[in-house]
Amino acid sequence: MSEHHEGTDGTGDPTKKAAAGGQPTFLERVDSALELEISRGPIVNTVQSPDDISSTKPTTSSTDAPEIKLSGGNLRPGFFGAGGSMMRKFDESTLQSRKASRPSSPPPPAIVGIGNKVARPDYSEEKIVLAMVGLPARGKSYLSNKLTRYLQWLEYDVKVFNVGNLRRSKAKSRATKTGKKEVHSANFFSNQNDEATRQREILAEESLEMLIAWLHEGGNVAIHDATNSTKARRAKIEKRVSREPNFSLIFLESWCDDPDIIAANVDLKVSAGDPDYMNMSREVARADFLARIKQYEAVYETVTEPHLSYMRIANVGSQVTVGRIHGYLQSRIAFYLMNLHLKPRAIFMSRHGESVYNVEGKIGGDAPLSPRGLQYATALPNLIKDNLGDATLTVWTSTLQRTIQTAQYLPFTKLTWKSLDELDAGVCDGMTYEEIEEAYPEDFANRDDDKFNYRYRGGESYRDVVVRLEPVIMELERQDNILIVGHQAILRCLYAYFHNLPQDDLPYIKIPLHTVIKLTPKAYGCDEERYKVPIDAVDTHRPKPTGSSSAHAPLDVPINSTARQFEVAGTANSGIAK
Questions:
Q1: Cα dist. 371→354, 516, 538, 573 in Å?
Q2: Whole-prediction pTM
Q3: What angle separates helix 26-33 from helix 85-94, to the nearest 10 degrees?
Q4: Catalytic residues
Q5: For residues 154 and 218, what is the distance between their CA atoms, to the nearest angstrom?
Q6: How far apart are CA 471 and CA 29, in angstroms?
Q7: Distance from first CA to last CA of the chain, Å, rounded?
Q8: Could you tell me which of 137, 210, 226, 376 has the fewest CB atoms within 10 Å of its CB?
Q9: Where are the alpha helices (DSSP H) in 179-281?
Q10: Quick check: 229 and 299 in contact, CB under 8 A?
Q11: pLDDT tens across 290-331, in order?
């Protein structure tokens, strides 16, 4: 990334190529970045012996990928940071430079004909069992939920198999038959309670069998969400998974000694309607849960087995230890987890101010702001300051002038991302929808039928944009307060990630002009507030056509039921809908 100029290599040339041999692969860029030392971010210890390093092959590629060699010492998430070498290389190589004049040029031979629908990547060979390890109230479910959201956003099939939920489900079923309710108090989790210990082992094994069956049915990553807190339990899991050809096993330990984090997790457990403590006072529930933790502490063994593939996350991201991590997907999981943190922060999102192309009904391009868009740019600093107070913030924009103009009066550090440029409309760039329908009727109809997968000829699909935004997500997870001044398609993708929305609905999320969306990440989701600035703008939202292949209703309001909306003054939007 760079400050206020295109390009990420310091030359201002966004199309600069790497080496005479062509663009490096993603894994080659990882391999190169791992040799660097970046000073910021949580410490990551890498632990492996020489025979741990394996050749990795992404399942979607027919060519061999180079080895990833995790050098000893400290590996820091700064490789993927806003100023990091890895991020600069990735950002620089994701897209070619965008030209506003493309519609007037004939398409190159490779893109003559109608656009196409992009097929979902084939991840069928990816089979990973991720077994959680950790005491209660240490953030295991938080990590598994975050990882599930991230991998599902990237279109892997991921499922969490929670042993506690299985225990409660079976107890409820037995109670229905016998009329006798089972009590799973702290004593049930005591290692001295032989019968309860036997039952818990059976539940863990049954959950593992369900997990393996699901992977055979086509799943990619199955998460065994349990304490798995002894070497004996982990040995059983390892022995069972080893019987499955081409299955990988990783243990993910969430270790925590921060009293504030533990206390917050205990409060969440006893106050969030946990079924184990239904119809129980908060004080009694807390006492029982703390007693349960002590039962587990008596037998807990941290992961020290030297032959296991594992990741240990200390205090939800302050330190990460990685051992025997092989391959592309495992590396992605490790890099993602090392970027997480629980520090309070806000993520502000705003589209650029109304542009000249917005007023003219055209898509794409690199048009400047309209007079009303410039008014919004002037009003934006006060709105952000009112919500932020004295806290610091970094502003991210795309390389296109309408976002840079919108951010020009904000008194904060600004960084430009090529990856935040608007969805590339290819040969349709700079056209109105009416012109597209007339010139390319098949494209127009096909995109309306499946907007997420449809790729403009010579351009991108929403699916392509999701892939290109992965490094942005990595950086967002590790940053503090951020304001993204972006584009409609880009903010839809980021919003869908934070709210875990389905792909069918993603292209129809309403992100209006002259509105600031404030997301406040929480342990299990995001709080949302929307601030409408009283400056009119055209409405560029196109509802989902009734005849589209998706059966879901269009999203014209935030799907998050807790979202709060604020309008300083009632103003009617002017212009036409897009």
A1: 8, 19, 12, 15
A2: 0.77
A3: 160
A4: 225, 352, 422
A5: 16
A6: 13
A7: 31
A8: 210
A9: 194-216, 231-241, 259-271
A10: yes
A11: 999 999 999 999 999 999 999 999 998 889 999 999 999 999
